[in-house]
Amino acid sequence: MALVTSSTAAALAVAVAGSPSALAVSNGTNPQTTGCSASAITTGSTRAIVDPSNGYRVGTAELRYSTGCQSQWTRVNFGGGYRVDPSIWLLNQNGTNLHSAYNDGYSNAYTFQLSDMKYRTACGGVQVYRSNGSWVGWYYIGCA
Questions:
Q1: Which of 38, 77, 106, 107 is 20 to 30 A from 59, comparing alpha carbons?
Q2: Lowest-confidence range among 7-11, 39-43, 96-100, 114-118?
């Protein structure tokens, strides 16, 4: 039997209250503002995005998983002169397609997160456009 002092219990309560939990995260929330990105890892492969018209490497796209929140989202890092529209969805399930939560217009974009992903699989991809609005292509990242 462990002895728990009041100072130990208070420290534990602060540690638990200050960290995101899988129970506190729901579908469609922002991985940055919930703190879930702090425990994120890249799952599966990172997809290079290359503009076929000029060979320019636009950036990379990847699926991210938060070990602390058990949530998943798509993240894209890209260069100037382009804009992106990332998506994430559950494998073999219709109607769960979450688009950009954040796009700074310069180099970062990501989707809202899917929750309760510890034993489920998400898939992701990204539509890429030039700054003039012309379509570059659809880049499928994969499922993980």
A1: 38
A2: 7-11
